[in-house]
Design brief:
Blueprint lengths: L14 E6 L2 E10 L2 E10 L11 H15 L15 H10 L8 E2 H8 L3 H9 L12 E2 L15 H12 L4
Length: about 170
C-alpha cells in the first residue's frame, strides 16, 4: 500500500496525523487571508506516524473526527479553504445532502446537478475534504465503485467499505 504524498513537510506545524479506526487521517490547516482553515484531509495507512495537532483548528478537526467515529450521524462544522472548480463545488455540495446510512449512485448525483456520472466520479476523486464532504456515500450502479481515484481493492476502497458499514449503509 502506498499513501498519497503529503503536500507539505510532515513536521510542519500545520500538518498533523491522527488515529482513525481504519488507519490514520492527515489533517492540513493553513492561514487563508488571515483565517485558519482546513485545507486537506488525507486517508493514510495505519503505519503512518502520528503527529499531534499543533493549532486550535487542527485540534478541533481531530475532535470532530473522533465524534464522527463514535456517532456516524455527527455533523461537521469546520471552516474549509475554498477549493475546486465550479463543477467540483456543485458535486461536493450535493453529496453533503446525502444522509449518513444512505448512498446515491454517481448517476443519481449527476442527474441532480445536470452533469455526467464520470464527471461526478472525477470530482469525488478530487475532493480535498473526503470525510467532511462524504464522497464515500456515492457508489456505482453496479456496486461500491471507486474511491479517492482508486478503482481496485486497496487502502481507499477498504476505507470506503469501513465508512459505509460504520454509517449503516452496508
Amino acid at each position: 500500500m502506498t499513501a498519497s504524498p503529503m503536500p507539505f513537510a510532515a513536521n510542519s506545524p500545520s500538518y498533523c496525523v491522527i488515529a482513525a479506526p481504519f488507519g490514520r487521517l492527515g489533517i492540513l490547516t493553513e492561514l487563508v487571508e488571515g483565517s485558519l482553515m482546513l485545507s486537506k484531509i488525507d486517508y493514510l495507512p495505519a503505519e503512518e506516524v502520528l503527529i499531534a495537532p499543533k493549532n486550535a483548528l487542527a485540534k478541533e478537526v481531530a475532535r470532530q473526527c473522533r465524534a464522527y467515529f463514535k456517532d456516524p450521524t455527527w455533523q461537521f462544522d469546520l471552516p474549509t479553504k475554498p477549493a475546486g472548480t465550479e463543477h467540483q463545488k456543485k458535486v461536493w455540495a450535493s453529496i453533503q445532502d446525502i444522509p449518513a446510512g444512505t448512498t446515491k449512485t454517481y448517476g443519481e448525483v449527476a442527474k441532480i446537478i445536470k452533469s455526467g456520472p464520470r464527471a461526478v466520479g472525477t470530482a469525488c476523486g478530487a475532493n480535498p475534504y473526503p470525510l467532511i464532504a462524504p464522497c464515500h456515500r456515492v457508489v456505482s450502479a453496479q456496486g461500491i465503485g471507486g474511491f479517492m481515484k482508486e478503482n481496485s481493492p486497496g487502502l481507499y476502497r477498504q476505507i470506503k467499505l469501513w465508512l459505509l458499514k460504520h454509517e449503516g449503509a452496508l
